[in-house]
Specification:
The chain is α/β, with parallel strands linked by helices. Helix content is about 25%, strand content about 25%.
Length: about 475
């Protein structure tokens, strides 16, 4: 008789539940490191008896929502992203690269929230005004944070500062100060002796975050956690961290530029399609309600290889400039360098130009970038990118008052993108006179076209709009525009 096979020990990922017959350092499902542990013999689920409830269930119409109303932070751009402000009892995770300005931003928010109420605030009515704010720093000393606060003007009597790395000490400060807003900088530096591992590990972050969320919900304290990011741009730590918190914000920007942008990838209290723009300087951080001019180059004469487009960041239209340089290559494999644009998208547009428009670049180096450090990931940038590359190849400049909006397909067609009317209105506000857009973009929701003066030339918002069907047609009408 064949011998019975002995069951092998199974291993399971603590993050997503993925199972494997042997141990590996990285989960094959969620790609998390150090989360695969031995599962052991499966035990049947325990039967839990019913117990007393903390709060009785109510009809949804009788639930009081007054305590969950948003309160402004005092920074209009941050309130735009949050959906009106901070919510008592909410837990917000702010992630970003080192040195991008996360601590400076939160120090400004903490100072505005701790200021006593006055008839006219600096930038709107500050949330939790006049109530204590506790700022816990685990990366710097209290003296270092005080020096930054002096530089940016964030020293107030209601702002309490503590340098701690132990969770029990943080909870003790919360009992003493009783803050309305708690800032923890950063969650990876706080640890607890009740959990295994070093601070910043998967188990430690999960335990610390769970305790801070419990305190926030029980006492109605708004908690803002600063999170580190990996070299790939993802938030460091377990993926469960993003599921536990209520709001996840990303703070982005080029370290060599003063422009900073904040966007929400998760928001239980507001939209996730808004973008906030800030200007970071030695004197602090201020909001930029109209940042479009930062992404343009002011010049007297048009230059070949440049084209302006309008991208939608959430519901906010931003006018940005795409620049291209095509030069003779000295290498067997020509270079393709991009900055601020998706590399794969740029390669696709170059292939369409070569195949559909017969613009050969197999012996040319192609460099493509954006102005002002802005990153353009929307497909509506395709048409402007194609026009910029074609202009640089032919050494022919486009009109400095022309914009191009549209998605380019593999067949060479120009596709409609959403929000064209809003994009044209923003371009007209900034003084542009001509626009190249996909045909059918200027139609109402029911398919009814807007009033047109000419089938080929449309006047909209004071601009001359040229509608095109293909990339070849777009090249022809764009380079013949006045």
């Amino acid at each position: 008789m064949a011998k019975a096979k002995t069951a092998k020990a199974a291993y399971r990922c603590s993050e997503c539940g993925w199972q494997t017959s042997k141990w590996v350092g990285r989960c094959g499902e969620c790609q998390a490191w150090g989360t695969v542990t031995e599962a052991g013999t499966a035990t049947p689920a325990r039967v839990v008896a019913a117990g007393p409830v903390s709060n009785p269930a109510l009809p949804i119409g009788q639930v009081d929502v007054r305590s969950a109303q948003t309160k402004a932070t005092g920074l209009d751009e941050l309130d735009r992203v949050l959906g009106g402000g901070l919510v008592p009892g909410a837990v917000v995770l702010l992630a970003g690269e080192p040195g991008i300005g996360k601590s400076t931003l939160l120090l400004e928010v903490a100072a505005l929230a701790s200021e006593p109420p006055v008839p006219q605030q600096r930038s709107g009515e500050a949330g939790q005004a006049g109530k204590p704010v506790l700022y816990v720093t685990g990366e710097e000393s209290a003296e270092q944070v005080r020096l930054r606060a002096d530089r940016v003007g964030a020293v107030t009597d209601g702002l309490y500062l503590a340098a701690e790395t132990e969770l029990s000490a943080v909870l003790g400060h919360i009992d003493t100060v009783e803050p309305a807003l708690l800032v923890v900088d950063s969650i990876q530096t706080i640890g607890t002796s009740e959990a295994d591992g070093a601070p910043g590990g998967v188990t430690q972050i999960r335990e610390v975050t769970a305790n801070l969320i419990r305190v926030a919900k029980e006492r109605g304290i708004t908690v803002v956690l600063v999170g580190h990011v990996t070299k790939d741009g993802a938030i460091a730590g377990p993926r469960l961290l993003e599921h536990l918190v209520d709001v996840v914000l990303y703070f982005e920007g080029d370290r060599h530029s003063r422009l900073r942008m904040i966007r929400a990838v998760k928001n239980r209290y507001g939209p996730t399609d808004e973008l906030g723009c800030f200007d970071l300087s030695e004197m602090g951080i201020v909001g930029l309600p109209d940042p479009s001019g930062l992404f343009l180059t002011r010049r007297e004469e048009p230059v070949p290889g440049t084209c302006v487009t309008v991208t939608l960041e959430g519901r906010r239209p931003l006018v940005a400039e795409v620049q291209s340089l095509v030069a003779k290559s000295q290498l067997p494999s020509p270079r393709r360098a991009t900055s601020g644009l998706d590399t794969s998208r740029v390669a696709m547009v170059l292939a369409v130009l070569a195949q559909r428009c017969k613009i050969s670049m197999h012996e040319q180096d192609v460099y493509v970038s954006t102005v002002g450090g802005v990153r353009l990931s929307e497909t509506s940038v395709d048409l402007a990118l194609a026009l910029a590359v074609a202009g640089s190849t032919a050494e022919q400049a486009l009109s400095s008052t022309l914009i191009a909006v549209g998605e380019v397909g593999l067949a060479g067609e120009v596709r409609v993108v959403p929000g064209v009317q809003r994009r044209l209105a923003e371009a007209a506000r900034l003084g542009f006179k001509y626009a190249v857009i996909p045909r059918g973009a200027l139609e109402l929701a029911d398919g009814t076209p807007l009033k047109k003066a000419d089938p080929q030339l449309t006047s909209y918002e004071g601009m001359k709009v040229m509608e095109v069907d293909s990339l070849q047609q777009a090249l022809r009408v764009a380079f013949t525009a006045p």
